[in-house]
Amino acid sequence: MKNIRGKLKKGGKWLLITSGGLFLLFLLLQWWFPLPDRVEYSTIITDHKGEVIHAYLTRDEKWRMKTYLEEISPCYAKPL
Predict the structure, then answer these.
(1) Are 53 and 46 in contact (CB under 8 A)?
(2) Sign of torsion, CA 28 32 38 41?
(3) Quick one: which H or E segment has residue 3?
(4) Does residue 52 contact residue 37 with C-beta atoms inside 8 Å?
(5) pTM confidence score
(6) What's the CA angle centered on 67, arms 80 and 53, to 5 degrees?
(7) 8 pLDDT exceeds 90?
(8) Cα–Cα distance between 9 and 19 in angstroms, integer?
(9) Contact (Cβ atoms closer than 8 angstroms) between residue 41 and residue 57
(10) Which residue among 12, 23, 72, 78 has its CA within the 20 to 30 Å range from the CA of 5?
(11) What is the DSSP string of 5-50?
(12) Cα–Cα distances in Å, from 57 out to 11, 20, 63, 70, 75?
């Protein structure tokens, strides 16, 4: 019984250290080589005043407009 507990303790420590090390490696690689933003946005054509003249769908037939949080009405924004 003592032998099994010792093996479980040792295995648990090894698993915790390994998973922590892999997580830190993932964070480090994400910092060094960040994944590019591969979201395709709709093309928007505007006039000289900034008014929208025409907008095109993406290749997968979706409307995706790049907006910033400040541009969205507080009524529609989800609180964090």
Answers:
(1) yes
(2) positive
(3) helix 2-32
(4) no
(5) 0.42
(6) 155
(7) no
(8) 15
(9) no
(10) 23
(11) HHHHHHHHHHHHHHHHHHHHHHHHHHHHSPPP--PPPPPEEE-TTS
(12) 53, 43, 5, 24, 26
Name the one residue in this structure whose structure tokens are 């060094």.
Answer: 32
Structure tokens at 74: 């507080």
Q: For 9-34, what is each residue's pLDDT tens digit?
A: 777 788 888 999 999 999 999 889 88
19 within 8 A of 31, measured Cβ to Cβ: no
* Residue for token pair 């295995």: 11
CA-based nearest residue to 58, from 50, 68, 66: 66
36-52: pLDDT as tens digits:
778 899 999 999 998 99
